[in-house]
Design a protein that fits this description.
Chains A, B: Pfam families: FAA_hydrolase, Rv2993c-like_N. Chains A, B: Keywords: Hydrolase, Metal-binding. Chains A, B: Residues 67-243 form the Fumarylacetoacetase-like C-terminal domain. Chains A, B: This is Fumarylacetoacetate hydrolase family protein. Chains A, B: Residues 1-50 form the Rv2993c-like N-terminal domain. The structure is a homodimer of 254-residue chains. By secondary structure, chain A is mostly beta strands. Chain A folds into 2 domains: 2-47, FAH (SH3 type barrels, Roll), CATH 2.30.30.370; 56-246, Fumarylacetoacetate hydrolase, domain 2. The first copy, chain A, is 8% helix and 41% strand. Chain A is built from 3 helices and 20 strands. Chain A has helices at residues 136-141, 146-149, 193-203, and strands spanning 2-8, 11-17, 22-25, 35-40, 45-47, 56-60, 73-77, 82-83, 89-92, 98-100, 102-108, 124-131, 134-135, 155-162, 171-176, 179-185, 211-213, 221-222, 228-233, 237-246. In chain A, strands 1, 2, 3, 4, 5, 6, 7, 8, 11, 12, 14 and 17 form a 12-stranded mixed β-sheet that branches. In chain A, strand 2 and strand 3 (22-25) form a beta hairpin. Chains A and B meet through strand 7 and helix 3 of A and strand 7 and helix 3 of B.
């Protein structure tokens, strides 16, 4: 099933995509998701980020086979940094060299606490596409990575969740202004999805709608204001976002 | 106003404490919070963590005046690590030396993105008490701190939110089994609440119910299974939690 979150005249809904229209879902995280009966035309709907997570966690040391010699490590991104397909990635004027990282993301369907490691993959609702936007300069200056990973709009996710996909070798392609910047397979990651989920679920509680970003197997793609960035994964579709300049008037001097 | 989140026979509600009973609130984050008219007796209610945040962020380099020479730094804790007053802090059997840190926490009332730095304190709904439980051994091994800060139950918060408190010198007392382990004032922090909020809000979007932990001005208090840990702040009440051993069967070998 292709699970979407959409904005429409009646508000915001979860829905499955039925080929020509959306069929509203009462709760995609229920043990047996139920359709409400409402149908929504794609012309009257806009795709949102497919979840509103409370946890967004990414894997460090997971960009290629060589990383399997390093201990696993994870980092948190601010949950509110998530935006949907088509939403602008805002490059703050106080950011340094900022890059896109195309990644496969696990969407958690139910609570992982007290689930045995062998059963953890049953807590995954499905897969989606994520762009782990990162300020490389800030990452160099902040050993905790907080200043690099969590800026507003730095986690585009979507366009939807595929629940049936079960393959270890998904091709991830990142494009900037339509030009291929990176192409690599999730088979190139240092750790597989089961190892990643076991590591993360030991360190923190996960629950419905949470996202586990599995690492970027390909090279990063530098971003500039005015660019259009896309991340495409086999069988999952393409997540596209414009890149805009943003005046970070929030800022106290760091 | 003292804003609580309570479990009762009718479900889970926000409520204000009116001296002898709770008065249910429709939405404490509304511009003008409105009472529903329902009253609930304390005998029929149990206090929960006063918020269900999407963001929990703490300040590094903020434990005393000497830290003001260091650049500010922030870390994220997993949002689902939050538990309420009376809930057990579970010490996993694979954790190292684990400590309590008593901290004043800002409860965010509305979105901070696009708010000018000078106006950020108006986004704060009120103050509460937090215990930033930390596995010091894991913090040493994981430079990103993720393994140290986000274990299930590692962020007790409560007992409630005080909306009217406006003082820079609040006394924080940490007790273990009733014995004082630490006593210090928020006046001893390297950075004041306005500086902390300006720093954090520049790095990430914050919104209703999010928590900003402001740093522990006093010494840490080691925790063992069987302990009872308390964090008391002048004018905010006491957050008390039992400490239990927990078999972390989640774990893949790290």
């Amino acid at each position: 099933m292709r699970v979407c979150r959409i904005a429409h005249a009646g508000g915001t809904s979860y829905a499955s995509w039925e080929g020509e229209e959306f069929a509203e879902l009462a709760d995609p995280f229920a043990p047996r998701p139920r359709h409400t009966g409402a149908r929504i035309s794609p012309a009257a709907a806009r795709l949102l980020a497919p979840v509103e997570p409370r946890t967004v966690v990414g894997m460090a040391h997971n960009t290629g086979a060589a990383d399997s010699a390093l201990p696993p490590a994870a980092f948190l991104k601010a949950a509110r940094s998530v935006v949907g397909p088509g939403a602008a990635v805002r490059l703050p004027d106080d950011a340094g060299r900022t890059v896109a990282e195309g990644e496969l993301a696990l969407v958690i369907g139910r609570e992982t606490t007290d689930v045995r490691p062998a059963d953890l993959l049953s807590c995954v609702l499905g897969l989606t596409v994520a762009n782990d936007v990162t300020d490389r300069s800030a990452q160099h200056d902040d050993p905790l990575w907080t200043a690099a990973k969590s800026r507003h709009t730095f986690t585009p996710v979507g366009p939807w969740i595929e629940t049936g996909l079960d393959r270890a070798d998904l091709q991830i392609t990142v494009t900037v202004n339509g030009v291929e910047a990176s192409r690599a397979s999730t088979a190139g990651l240092a750790r597989d999805l089961g190892e990643i989920l076991a590591y993360v679920a030991r360190l923190m509680p996960l629950g419905p709608g949470d996202l586990v970003l599995t690492g970027a197997p390909g090279p990063e793609a530098p971003l500039r204001a005015g660019d259009a960035v896309g991340v495409r994964i086999d069988g999952l579709g393409e997540l596209g976002n414009p890149v805009e300049a943003w005046h970070a008037r929030q800022g106290a001097a760091a």
